[in-house]
Amino acid sequence: MKTIFILAVSLVVSTLIYGQNDTLKSKKDTTRIVVGKKEIKIVDTDQGTDIKVREKNHKEENDTNFQEFKKQKIKKFSGHWSGIDLGFDNYLNKNGSTGLSANDEFMRLKSNRSIGVSINFFQHSVGLIGNNFGLVTGLGLEFNNYFFDHNNSISKDSLSVVIPKTYTNVHLDKSKLEATYLVVPLIFEFQFPGSVSRSKRFRIAAGVIGSLKLESHTKVLYPDNGRAQKDKVRDDFSMNFLRYCFTGRIGLNKVNLYANYYPVRLFEKDKGPELYPISVGLSFALW
């Protein structure tokens, strides 16, 4: 409405200066301004603001003679959370690198197969400054997949400490640890001005994502007398029940590039290797 107000004031001032016999009419959410031989109609709707102009000698009831002068979309802030995330799962050691000690070597991953998926099904946006900057929250489900590189899985000993589960007489086709989390984000997002449509704005975002572990299990596939066998074990594997991550995102159109770092250990303290999960990938806004 600020743009419309300035336009209206400018037209009234010009009328006073040039001495035209002009009129200003208002009816509900429609405003009509007559300047010289021109009539301007301003209509506010939930979708935006339309400004149209025509010659004054047309009948007011006939809107077909109006030509669109300017159309300004004014929308509330809406962030980019809902959609699907696809990324590579991995973890860092206590020194911040992907290297593993000899004792932790059984946790080494096949990076190209450790692909995580997040389904972000609910979003709520809170505008803080205009329609360019705000807070985004919501709900989602995160599915982490850690594919082991060696011929092993994991299990727990009598003290619930995570240890390798080795296979000596068979070659494993697949061995992985899966975990499912309920996630809640608190992300600040800034959309650079330049486009009316929010999806076409270049944007940056940063914040935290809290996670609640719902389930975890290991899955192993191997051949047995020409047939594929599958072993699936459900357990908590001494993984931390609650965790959070720092997230950074940049995007354009309906695609974001994101990176997540979890300063919370994958396993409980003294219950497994000291590893800190990370994930990097693409986020696709589907709705």
Quick gist of this model?
The protein is mostly beta strands and 287 residues long. It contains one helix and 16 strands.
Q: Which features would summarize this protein structure in a list?
A:
mainly beta; 5-stranded antiparallel β-sheet; 6% helix; 55% strand; disordered N terminus
Largest sheet: number of strands, sense, barrel closure = 8 strands, antiparallel, barrel
Rg: 29 Å
Question: How many domain modules?
Answer: 2
Indicate the overall shape: elongated
Low-confidence runs: 1-28
- First-residue to last-residue Cα separation: 28 Å
Share in helix: under 10%
- Average pLDDT metric: 84
Spatial arrangement of strands, main beta sheet: 6-7-8-11-12-14-15-16
Order of helices and strands: HEEEEEEEEEEEEEEEE
Query: Total number of helical segments?
Result: 1
Total strands: 16
The helix/strand class is: mainly beta
State which percent range the strand residues make up: over 45%
